[in-house]
Amino acid sequence: MANAFDRKHRIAVLGGGPGGYEAALAGAQLGAEVTLIERVGVGGAAVLTDVVPSKSLIGTAGGVQAVRDSGKLGVQAFVPGGDGKPVRPEIAVNLKAVNKRLLAMAAAQSDDMHRTLEQAGVRIVHGEGRLDGPNAVVVATTAGAEGTDFDRIEADTIVVSVGASPRELDSAKPDGERILTWKQLYDLPAIPEHLVVVGSGVTGAEFANAYRTLGAEVTLVSSREQVLPGEDKDAAAVIEREFKRLGMNVMSKSRADSVTRTENGVLVELSDGRTIEASHCLMAVGSIPNTAGLGLEEAGVGLTESGHIHVNKVARTSIPSIYAAGDCTDFYPLASVAAMQGRTAIMHALGDFVRPIDLRNVSSNVFTYPEIATVGWNEHSLADASDMAKAISHTIPLSVNPRAKMIGFTDGFVKLFAWQASGTVIGGVIVSHRASELIFGLALAVEHRLTVDQVASAFTVYPSMTGAITDAARALHQR
Predict the structure, then answer these.
(1) DSSP 96
(2) Conformation bin of residue 407: beta by default, left when phi > 0, alpha when psi is -120 to 50
(3) What percentage of residues in the chain have a pLDDT greater than 70?
(4) CA distance linking residue 375 with residue 443, whole number of Å
(5) Would you say residue 408 has pLDDT above 70?
(6) Sequence-separated (6 or more) residues with CB below 8 Å from residue 212
(7) Domain co-membership, 40 together with 160
(8) Are both 187 and 133 inside the same structural domain?
(9) What is the C-alpha to C-alpha distance for residues 408 and 69, in angstroms, rounded to an integer?
(10) Are residues 273 and 316 in the same domain?
(11) Which family does the UniProt entry place this protein in (predicted)?
């Protein structure tokens, strides 16, 4: 009779988002027997209703903005008028066609991921899964008109990666037509006449920027003094300035008490008694983890008060056989972090070499126009740790960068942080067109603890936006 040492390590992954996908793929690559349980589709909400479609929508808005800004480069588009004089054409956005493309792209990405897992040897089960103790998952799978079947999957290691859902408020209950969450935006048949966005965090700011660029009147209701309160203050100031330049109504220090349907739209009531009448309202007030009813507490898994799964730096929970990854954890809600958690969990479970995840090295990006990309220490974290006096920083405005001038994009900057004593690069902020691509160089510097002199000694193309990074590093040189 075969014992546990004669068979493959069994892994059950609950949820097929970025964390679950990477965990399943890593497990298969390392020779384990892997089962992935997913109720919607491989890729989860991140691919089907969140990251992929939203960033594609933002990319479409960026295309519109590029056309509008082309006049700064001397490019002008005209059509012949009835009187023979040229007439500048209007930019038309077919939102129904845009949304159809976004959702088709998301579905294609999900199919590609599904195919990759199957080719790697992962068994994929579609259904609702829950833990049955620390070493098994029970899956409810549909059985046609007959009802429901149950499949019990035993596992040596379980990875929970079930994501999160938009937070809903009783005073502003989404209806999918006028009061919306970010998952419901892709059902809109046309650009909203007037969209109120409640919440000025990353999600709210990104969608407010995109829909204003696409042609909607937008009012952004922010409870804070400045939009994007979690970001670098100088960076947030650039974005707020751009919002106002676009004609967005930014209502700072305002809190929405309720949102109700009217005959032709919505009525937003603020805590100070003011009201806003609009056609639609997007509620961007955070998210809640999809951990309820999964049998986590019964299995002994520790949860926070908010329902997030508590994990350590190798994605392990309070139960040795159970790991967790992604937005359902109390770590850091980014798709890239979820993916790293998934890989790290499997490598740790299987005894492979693993480096604990250091959040100081995580790159993040706000997909506004311009984008804000950050990595490592910043002014917030340095102040909280009382280390501001030990650090030095330098900012290079893009207004002095030759490539930025050439492409007509100069409202941004590169900011670099380093330890004063050693010159080691500890963080950076980039506000620029496609800052998400530019931040990689700084991410490498932070990850490998390069000094400002080492960064400055690297050759950058002239002219290039990356030249601003070496310029900032050169400015921090100390004898």
Answers:
(1) H
(2) alpha
(3) 97
(4) 6
(5) yes
(6) 218, 243, 246, 247, 248
(7) yes
(8) no
(9) 8
(10) no
(11) Belongs to the class-I pyridine nucleotide-disulfide oxidoreductase family.
- pLDDT single digits (tens) 292-329: 999 999 999 999 999 999 999 999 999 999 999 999 99
Task: State the total domains in the chain.
Answer: 3
Helix or strand or coil: residue 87?
strand
Domain endpoint, select from 264, 285, 306: 285
CB 231 within 8 A of CB 392: no
**Is the CB of residue 205 less than 8 Å from the CB of residue 368?**
yes
- Whether the pLDDT of residue 148 is over 80: the answer is no
**Cα–Cα dist 461/285, whole Å:** 42
Q: Do 191 and 269 lie in a common domain? A: yes
At 344, the pLDDT band (50, 70, 90 cuts) reads very high
In a shared domain, residues 354 and 245: no
Structural domain containing residue 460:
370-475
197-232 residue pLDDT tens: 999 999 999 999 999 999 999 999 999 999 999 999
The H helix count followed by the E strand count for the chain is: 12, 25
pLDDT for res 401: 96
Do the Cβ atoms of 317 and 323 come closer than 8 Å?
Answer: yes
Do residue 134 and residue 238 come from a single domain? no
Q: What is the DSSP letter of 169?
A: B
Q: Pull the structure tokens for residue 440.
A: 């990689």
**Residue 364: what residue type?**
S
How far apart (Å, rounded) are the C-alpha atoms in residues 381 and 361? 13
Domain termination residue (choose one: 359, 384, 418): 359
pLDDT digit string, tens, across residues 183-196? 999 999 999 999 99
User: Do 273 and 323 belong to one domain?
Assistant: no
Write out the H or E segment, with its range, that includes residue 273: none
The two structure tokens encoding residue 433? 């067109």
Per-residue pLDDT of 258-301, as tens digits, reads 999 999 999 999 999 999 999 999 999 999 999 999 999 999 99
Task: Report yes or no: 393 and 473 within 8 Å, Cβ to Cβ.
Answer: no
Instruction: Please report whether residue 273 resides in a domain.
Output: yes
Say whether pTM exceeds 0.90: yes
Q: Are residues 299 and 348 in the same domain?
A: yes
What CATH number does residue 145 fall under? 3.50.50.60
Q: Please measure the distance between the N-terminal and C-terminal CA atoms of the chain and give it in whole angstroms.
A: 71
Q: Give 236-246 pLDDT, tens digit per residue.
A: 999 999 999 99
Residues whose CB is less than 8 angstroms from the CB of residue 5 and which lie 6 or more positions away in sequence, other chains included: none
Which residue in the block uniquely carries the two structure tokens 């804000």? 372
Cis previous bond, 463, omega within 30: yes
